[in-house]
Amino acid sequence: xxxxxxxxFAPASAWGLRLPQKFLFLLFLSGLVTLCFGxxxxxxxxxxxxxxxxxxxxxxxxxxxxxxxxxxxLVREQEPAPNPAPAALTSGENNxxxxxxxxxxxxxxxxxxxxxxxxxxxxxRVSSIAALRPQERNLPFRFDFNAFRSRLRHPVLGRxxxxxxxxxxxxxxxxxxxxxxxxxAWQSYKRYAMGKNELRPLTKDGYEGSxxxxxxxxxxxxxxxxxxxxxxxxxxxEAKAWVEESFHLNVSGEAxxxxxxIRYIGGLLSAFYLTGEEVFRIKAIRLGExxxxxxxxxxxxxxxxxxxxxxxxGSWGWATAGSSSILAEFGSLHLEFLHLTELSGNQVFAEKxxxxxxxLRKIEKPFGLYPNxxxxxxxxxxxxxxxIGGLGDSFYEYLIKSWLMSGKTDMEAKNMYYEALEAIExxxxxxxxxxxxxxxxxxxxxxxxxxxHLACFSGGMISLGAEDAKEEKRAHYRELAAQITKTCHExxxxxxxxxxxxxxxxxxxxEAVATQLSESYYILRPEVVESYMYLWRQTHDPxxxxxxxxxxxxxxxxxxxxxxxxxxxDVYSSIPNHDNKQQSFFLAETLK
Length: 592
Hints:
single chain, mainly alpha, about 45% helix, globular, EC 3.2.1.-, alpha-1,2-Mannosidase, calcium ion binding, transmembrane helix, Glycosyl_Hydrolase_47
């Protein structure tokens, strides 16, 4: 109004602007609006601002995006319950049915052969991104359990037709006795230690230990497949119910990568493949994810300890001043981790263990031997101690079993196994003056003429691998397996209890016996009877069943207590001094 009263001023419009000025003003205003709104929608991390202008999107039920694990983003989906979920269960950590564990991949066919690590890593990253796209949410990964069961050569339960030719009265009575021992071990655990990791039978209470990072129920999960195979249906349902309702993964301690893998993940995978119950598959995958931080090292060789709370990792303090990973530990992941990929569709598990193989193939090996200690930082051997017993044992076992598990397509595993076995024969194999064949330990070229109980699995392993050896070596390997198993039997036969010591020596005129009390204990280990079982299956020589029955009788006489089975501290004493521990592997392996 003031400007209208000024003499000589004639406004061009109601706004006081001429036409060209108005055009420029509108052009500037439209540019400013475009810039502001474009920033809201196009700049990174603008989701909070978008919510000011856009209606919230409804998330598809069952999907959640979880934090990166070991640098690999995982998109997981809630699985339907195999049976209706109990009403008491709610969503969250403790609900076994409200678990999410699948990485979705965009229409790629499943690979049946190993691919290059770079190709696999790229595929995993692209798959993770594709998993977030809305159009992919209707294509979750599914494992076809029925197709798997249809491919089995033999039924899981029941007897084979040829068994009708056996002296059934004796065989069945012996089986029923072992089954009764399993029932007793389970019922004792259930009564005094249900939910704890292991039973202490003398004090009749439970034991947690420090190896499992706060996880509980090791005996339950380790025993699942044995209960199922022995057709202990009521006991199996008790164990399954505990896994569904009480096996929680929200723990925060430090755990052994190796022990959690073989006892928990191995137990859950076995139970799933036997039954098809989804709870076992889902728990196994989620627990596998919790172990992935162990692989966060410069070489990808995992450290032996993982902290479930912080995601950090470390090595055992006693493993060459805490600088080393152990061959038997990082070499005993392949079977379980390949199955975790098979059951989840997430390639990260397979990538991790294939990288271990890559490192081991590349590194120079002294005389073709694999030392027990490797630096996860440098990728070099820390010291030249070689053993097919403790610290090394299951690495070799996993090689031959990886070859067999792959349907005999994993040529890398096959070649590594037979190359290692040839080196072991050349540098470690010995025959005592008394004619006993044993595998010594090697320390920088000097032999320790002893064999550990853990090394006694090797008779069964060599027997298992004989079929696929070069034709001219098959008979030799079968005979070698028999001779090593005979030596391990002698370590039992030469004790007062007819149970074997933790380690036995061949020196000073003494053969297949422990030379000090610290090696004279027996903790319900399975390796010797495992080799009996393999040799029986391969040869059907009745001597292996006879030797197995000797172990059953010795366990009953010296290890059975009022509150369960216990290890003993001296196999050379006919008056047992029990160690008050019923190991989970006694139910998982020895009795099986």
